[in-house]
Amino acid sequence: MRQIFILVILFLLMAANGLVFTGEKKVEAKQVTLLFWTHEDPNRTPLEEGYIKEFQKKYPNVTIKRVTYPSRKIQEKILTAFAVRKGPDIFNMEINDEYQYIVNARVAPIDPEAAGYQNKQAIYDDYLAGTLDATTYKGDLYGLPLELTNWCLFLNKKYFREAGLDPEKDYPKTWEEMLEVAEKITIREGEIIKRRAFDFRYPYYLISWLPMVQQLGGSFLSEDGKRCAINSEAGMRVLRYMAEWGPNGRNFGSPTYRNARKTFNKDDGSVAMCLSGLYQIARIEAQNPAFYESKQWSVVSFPRFADAVSDNGCNYYGHFYLVNAEKPDYERKTAWSLIAYMLKDPEEYMAKVGLIQPKKSLLVSEVYKNYPYADVFIEDMAKSSPVMLHKNAPKLQELIKEAVESVMLAGMDSKEALERLERKTNEILGE
Amino acid sequence: MRHIFFTHSIGKYKAIWGWIFVIPALLYFALFSFYPIVNAFYTSTLQQDILSLEPPKFIGLKHYIYLFHSEDFWKSAEATAVFTLGCFIPLVTVSLILAILIHSRGRRFQNFLQMAYFSPAVLSTVVAAVVWLMVFDPRGLANQWLNFVANTPGVNHKWLALSGMARLSTIIVYFWKYVGYFTIIYFAGLANIPGVYYEAAKIDGASSWAQFWHISFPLLKPTTILVSIMAMIQCMRTFSTQYLFTQSGVPTGPINVITLNIYNTAIRDHYIGRASAMSIVLFSIILIFSWFQLKVSKTEKVSYV
Questions:
Q1: What is the value of pTM for the model shown?
Q2: Which residue of B has its CA nearest to A201?
Q3: Could you write out the DSSP letters of every residue in A98-123?
């Protein structure tokens, strides 16, 4: 009798806590508000807002606030929010900015069950080999990729023809050819460039400048990552190339001209080639449908040096979804559930936004096979390396920027610039 | 006795009301100025990564010693000094000249000119920087104007690329934005000078220059002190223009003023302790210069009699 009484009391207590029969319902009924911060991408917004609406309909107790920031501002927003322990539940940035959040345990390892997987291995099996390495840290997996991006060369065929070049044959395959093609396409009025043939994406040195050094057999850091290795023949040649490209050299471009990638879409005669990812195609279609329809544009591989010892293209990087480790367990589970929901259809992301979500299912899909120039990007990515991940990556990139600008704009000798870069990098690594 | 008591009560009464009026301002200052200063000093003695959850390590004055030996910090100090000198002197002198010009016009023109000169000051710094970046673009108006004036068609003056030109560009933007603001302050100072002095001077046959030199300029001394201290502090604290310029591809080195260095050290490099030490150093420099300016001007008092 006493045992029955205890059981009844226990049952009543458990029922009161919602652990019997209504356990899951109780959890589902709990009101959750998730704050989701991401970078601006007009093509992605309607797609994600649609997914969020569907998710909220499926789980009426969940409210999601999606907030967007410019892609060069979001790093600061997220950092300051995390510094005062008010970070969003879900966020994504470039992996080299996210890496510090993983190292400092500010983000939570993925919950496979909440994300709809049986276990962690099932997640790795769902994605192309190696594509989750960037968010694997000390045996735990911390993020799922919204996109994996590499850059190839976009051409405006019209401007090639105007310069007497055949865009199908005469596009630059090597960096040496790039100089020759630039000489023919560039239009100047005195020293002032009216049409650039091509220009680099200057702030992104770890993504698009270091691969040039790697092509010539060089690297930025030593193998153990403890010393700077840029002061080499390869580093010297690439810096000299930049000096030759700049306003004090053959005057083909400069960091102070307007961003070539953005200008390219306008087809306004100001730039003939730029570096960008597959997403650029959807942006051309959205921003300048007439240019998109004209088919006067094409995409070719990232150039190599004629005597390259490594056939790598541009370094690829990813935007990974991460979840704030300081949020309650239930919110984290809901966050992973939402992320998995938004990533359920990589074909839709490719078709509508031009983003590559590196799931195995995408590469065998019709969407991938029919998407213009997807093969160019994937083939180049297969030959390339992921962007360098380092706790001080933003500072190291700034030092490279300083070196490149000093030879391009201030006329500093490449040897001196390399020595300064090496010394300053070693100082950072020493700290 | 009664008289003393009465006086004491009135004094006490006034003091209480005085405190009541002053306390909100004191609280505001304590919360938003004094506390951040004390906190920044405390943070400057810690070794701390802004993202790390690990407890910070107390390192005393090591950040200050580091800054003293840091090439980057001295270059920032140089960039700040160049910017402040390049901007502060023209700001004070030109705003005075403009105020006198406005003051000498009729009332209708005065209102229009005040509004015209002041309008850039109300414009967002971001908008101002974007507009000027377009002006300084190689294909922009700056090259076109200069080439037209100097008859040097096709020359790219590299407004944003060369070290000296990048510095000059930021000075121009800042000068353009704030000259109207200080002009209005000077104008208010001029308007406070009683007209009888000028009338008397005219009767005595004083020229315009003599009127300015012997009446306006001395009586504007408190305004000049105010303007020079405000302009100097603002120039030393400049940030947005340099930040937006470097975000748009302008080389960081020549315009890496201390505030920009503080921002990058804290936000990009995550060294919040070192950034705090820099801000304390900048605060001390501003404090010393302000004190020095007040000291050399000896007195703020001015008499019209």
A1: 0.85
A2: B249
A3: HHHHHHTT-BPPP-TTTTT-SSHHHH
